[in-house]
From TrEMBL, chain A:
One of its GO terms (molecular function) is peptidase activity. It comes from Sporolactobacillus sp. Y61. Transmembrane segments: none annotated. InterPro entries: Peptidase_U32, Peptidase_U32_C, RNA/ubiquinone_mod_enzymes. This is U32 family peptidase. Belongs to the peptidase U32 family. GO terms for biological process: proteolysis. The lineage of its organism: Bacteria, Bacillati, Bacillota, Bacilli, Bacillales. Gene3D superfamilies: Translation factors. Residues 324-405 form the Peptidase family U32 C-terminal domain. Keywords: Hydrolase, Protease. Pfam families: Peptidase_U32, Peptidase_U32_C.
UniProtKB/TrEMBL annotation, chain B:
InterPro entries: Peptidase_U32, RNA/ubiquinone_mod_enzymes. This is Peptidase U32 family protein.
Length: 407, 302
């Protein structure tokens, strides 16, 4: 029965207010953000209460939702003040909080009754009984561990009606969620409290101790041992995720740029809408994949969804050549009379260059930069200064918040 | 007080009981995680029989992260353990806790969420869900452990000797590497493999692969021999000895030393220096002893 599918939510990361707005303009049904405490991205741009208010107002005006991650694993004293934090989030109108620590869950439930709680992937939910446990505690949703397969999700759905959120795109933690303290032991940085130093991506020697002496196993001229995984992308397999009953399709990357967030949201929005509108006649559009590659930083794979990852899903050796696109400018306004767009520069570009404009709804076109003017209307060859305002003639109509990229 | 030690076989279990261990910690695949050797239910039965014959206890490891398949098999396993009168199990998966509740088995559980057991409030949550104790994460300091125990009625188990797992991946990281390099090497625990961070030439992290994925351990074997008196005075009286990387007789000798130390602590005659020196003599040459996070200031970790 593929004719009646329940449309899942496209959930995008937002490191700050600008990214939040972009993600929503580009089709995200919901975004997840961090507050100034209790999140796992202590080094990401996080939201002040005022930013949160603005973000929530922006989102709700467009029927989108905002979730706040408060997924640290607390030590003694870390939870101090969390009750006020959750109360404030509730007043601000945040739609849910994402928590892994049961102490934080209890604090939240007591301080902000009615504020929906989602179980963070850090809590490693890998079976339907675990989902049922959290449902009985009163949670509305569980973010699955990254180690589950599609068939396992299908089976979970047969046994429980708690909402299921699953990662569909982005970098993958190599550890079983929450089972990594490499950073703690190597550099005194607690990964479970936002300090992850990505020690898994370092280069290691692999050796044995034959006869009491260390003997390296790394072959002559070989690669050092490392634990890096290629990134996840379930774009080609969205129908499987949707049919399995996943309610929320989660994109990783609160540290990523608006170029990334807008592009990925745009693609998944388009693919989900296309599939759900007519599942039986759905065909995959290779243009979506091309688009994803424009912001990819690593190779892409399907993680654990179709089996345990092999050496092909690890990052060994020379990275594959990924077409690098640069975010060049953002459209501020457009004059249909003159066909001129006013742009805010984000990276150096100039006349004669091939550029691509894209906007919400998966709108795209390529063109050459025919002309360029500074804010006083003086012709220029290049727009060299970050955030400078400039104007150019565009081949097709654009709108504010369209972005321009170049190879 | 409760001195807990892993056992890899019926024979070693008997030797550990003779050495003065109070509780044996055993388990099998796929429910128990990172054991010296996974034991079958018949061996577990024999070990329970042995222990109970001497008035000692057995805790069975059920602390794996379970997928649907395992959670479906778990009920029968737990029922069997209850029949065999196992004294307790360790559990880290809430799905296992729900299974236990549903079957109404007379099988107490100790919460063992590995790296996720880091505060008294968290443990209080699991106690409210009928846990009888909890295994502390090894990334805690003594200052934190004492604070936690002071807030809780039920005991927190502290690792006083052994390696600590610092990473578990669901991926076969060694096999993947071998395949990439075209090598045919063993990746099991007995192969004795280590990782070294080139920026820290002293480091040697044991690594192995099993059905649960890849496991990486700390450079040091933790030892709280010098702090045993302090632990007792702060009601931290569940002491675990982990033999996951140390086979046979050498582990038993270390357990015997800790049992002797425990008696000395109980009788007020404990003198740490002598015990620490004796432990050093028993310790395998290629494994340094250390105190991990225990003696750090909580503020050092950020």
């Amino acid at each position: 029965m593929r004719t009646r599918v329940k449309k899942p939510e496209v959930l995008a990361p937002a490191g700050n207010l600008e990214k939040l707005k972009m993600a929503i303009r580009y089709g995200a049904d919901a975004v997840y953000i961090g507050g100034q405490a209790y999140g796992l991205r202590s080094r990401a741009g996080n939201f002040s209460y005022d930013d949160m208010k603005e973000g929530v107002a922006f989102a709700h005006h467009r029927a989108a939702k905002v979730y706040v991650a408060a997924n640290i694993v607390t030590h003694e004293g870390d939870a101090a003040g969390a009750d006020d934090f959750f109360k404030t989030l509730q007043v601000i109108g945040v739609d849910a909080v994402i928590i892994s620590d049961p102490a934080m869950i209890m604090i939240c439930a007591a301080a902000a009754p009615g504020l929906p709680i989602h179980l963070s992937t850090q809590a490693s939910a890998t079976n339907y009984k675990a989902l049922e446990f959290w449902k009985k505690i009163g949670l509305e949703r569980v973010v699955l561990a990254r180690e589950v397969g599609i068939e396992e999700i299908r089976e979970m759905r047969r046994h429980t009606d708690i909402e299921i959120e699953a990662f569909i795109h982005g970098a993958m933690c190599i550890a079983y969620s929450g089972r990594c303290t490499l950073s703690n032991h190597m550099v005194n940085r607690d990964a479970n409290r936002g300090g992850c130093a990505q020690s898994c991506r370092w280069k290691y020697d692999l050796f044995d101790m034959e006869g009491g002496k260390a003997k390296s196993l790394i072959p002559e001229g070989g690669e050092a041992f490392s634990m890096s995984a290629v990134d996840l992308s379930m774009l080609r397999h969205l129908p499987d995720m949707i049919d399995a009953g996943v309610n929320s399709l989660k994109i990783e990357g609160r540290m990523k740029s608006i170029h990334y967030v807008s592009t990925v949201s745009n693609v998944y929005r388009k693919a989900v809408d296309t599939y759900c509108a007519d599942p039986e006649h759905y065909t995959f559009d290779p243009a979506w994949e091309d688009e994803i590659w424009k912001v990819a930083q690593r190779d892409l794979s399907t993680g654990f969804y179709y089996g345990v990852p092999t050496e092909k899903e690890q990052l060994f050796g020379k990275p594959r050549k990924i077409p690098k696109y640069t975010f060049a400018a953002q459209v501020m306004s457009y004059d249909p009379e003159t066909k001129m767009a006013t742009l805010q520069q984000r990276n150096n570009f100039g006349t004669g260059e091939e550029v691509e404009f894209y906007g919400p709804g998966f709108v795209h076109f390529k063109q050459t930069v025919h002309d360029l003017f500074d804010e006083n209307g003086e012709p220029i060859d290049r727009a060299p200064n970050p955030m400078m305002t400039c104007r150019m003639t565009v081949d097709q109509p654009v709108e504010p918040h369209f972005l321009m990229r170049k190879k | 007080m409760n001195l807990i030690a892993t056992a890899e076989s019926v024979g070693q279990a008997e030797a550990l009981l003779d050495a003065g261990v109070d509780t044996l910690y055993v388990g099998g695949h796929p429910f128990g995680l990172r054991l010296p050797r996974p034991l079958g239910i018949e061996e577990i039965k024999e070990i329970i029989h042995l222990a109970h014959g001497r008035g000692k206890k057995v805790t069975v490891a059920c602390n794996a992260l379970m997928h649907n398949k395992e959670i479906e098999q778990l009920g029968a396993y737990l029922s069997r353990l209850a029949e065999l009168q196992a004294d307790a199990i360790t559990v880290g998966d809430p799905g296992a806790i729900l299974t236990l509740e549903e079957l109404k088995l007379p099988l107490p559980y100790i919460y063992d969420g590995e790296t996720l057991v880091t505060s008294a409030e968290q443990i209080a949550f699991w106690l409210k869900h009928h846990a009888v104790g909890a295994v502390a994460a090894r990334e805690l300091t003594l200052i934190e452990l004492k604070e936690m125990q002071s807030r809780l009625e039920k005991p927190i188990e502290v690792l006083v000797y052994g390696p600590t797992c610092i990473h578990q991946s669901g991926r076969p990281l060694l096999s993947n590497y071998y395949r990439y390099e075209g090598m045919s090497e063993r990746s099991d625990k007995d192969r004795g493999l280590f990782l070294r961070d080139p920026k820290n030439p002293e480091s040697q992290y044991p690594i192995f692969e099993d059905e649960d994925g890849t496991h990486i351990f700390s450079t040091e074997d933790l030892s709280l021999m010098a702090q045993l008196q302090d632990l007792k005075e702060n009601r931290l009286i569940w002491w675990k000895l982990d033999g996951v990387l140390l086979r046979g007789e050498p582990f038993v000798r270390i357990a015997a030393l800790f049992a002797e130390a425990k008696q000395a602590v109980e009788s007020g005659t404990f003198e740490p220096a002598g015990y620490c020196n004796r432990l050093k003599d028993l310790q395998p040459a290629n494994r340094p002893l250390g105190t991990g996070f225990y003696l750090k200031d909580p503020k050092e970790i950020h």
